[in-house]
Every structure is written in C-alpha cells, then in structure tokens.
Amino acid sequence: MLYKRQKWVEPYRFLERVKSGNIRGYVLQFAVHGISAILARPDLVEAFLSEIATWRGLEIVKSNMEEEIEAARAAAKVGLDFDDGLHYYYAKKLGVPIVSFDKDFDKTDLKRLEPGEVVGG
C-alpha cells in the first residue's frame, strides 16, 4: 500500500477492518520498524505509529533473540529468506494464516490468503 501498487485497494479494505476491530490482525514489530525505516522522516513515523496504536484489531508481536534464531532455522527449512521466515514462524506459532500477495509462502505448510479473500473481494 505504501507505493499504491496495482492491488492497493484490497489491502486498504483489509486494514480498515483491522483498524475498526472487525478483523483481528497481527503485525511483527520487525515489520513496523521496517515500515518506519521506509517512511524515514520522524514526523511521518510519528504519524504512522500514532495511527496504528489506535487500531482496535491489531496486535503487535514482539520477538526475542531465541525466537528469531528459531525463525531463521524455520526459514531455512522451508526455503524462505529471513524476513518471510520470521512471518512464517510467528503465523505458525499463533496458528493463523498469512495474509499476503507474496507467493513464496505457498511453498510452506501454512495457508496464505490474499487480502481480498479475507474481506470478500
């Protein structure tokens, strides 16, 4: 969504549902930091963090070093890079599907849904 790519409407609708609390969503603190790094400017980062802090359905998942080591091992086993492997590890740990357009997750044992499949369309 950051770059308003071709399929930005589906993720927008999905995130609006998470924001309102109609859908429960999880995001890794690792991903939040990544988005903050892309935004770069402190004023934009402050606005972003302040906004998602109010989202009713969002839980920010924090990791520790031991879990990141396990995630790296899991990533190697299923053929993912570390970033995707971290998401894979926590989705598996939480027992939730991955919501993503990234087809790399299709080679894993987890279910991958696209945002439109969750919000209907």
How would you briefly describe this protein structure?
By secondary structure, the protein is mainly α.
**Helical segment tally?**
6
Strand order of the largest sheet: 1-2
Succession of helices and strands: HEHHEHHEEH
**Got a strand count?**
4
Our estimate of the beta-strand percent is 5-15%
Which regions contain 5 or more consecutive residues with pLDDT less than 50? Answer: none
Oligomer: single chain
What's the alpha carbon Rg, rounded to whole Å?
A: 15 Å
Gap between N and C termini, in Å? Answer: 17 Å
pLDDT average, as an integer?
92
Biggest sheet statistics: 2 strands, parallel
The helicity comes to 40-55%
- State the shape: globular
Structural class: mainly alpha
Characterization of this structure:
This protein has 121 residues and is mainly alpha-helical. It is built from six helices and four strands. It has helices at residues 9-20, 29-39, 42-52, 65-78, 82-94, 115-119; strands at 25-28, 58-61, 98-99, 112-113. It has a two-stranded parallel ribbon. Helix 4 (65-78) packs across helix 5. The longest helix is centred in the middle third of the chain and has 14 residues, at 65-78. It is globular and about 40 Å long. The mean pLDDT is 92.
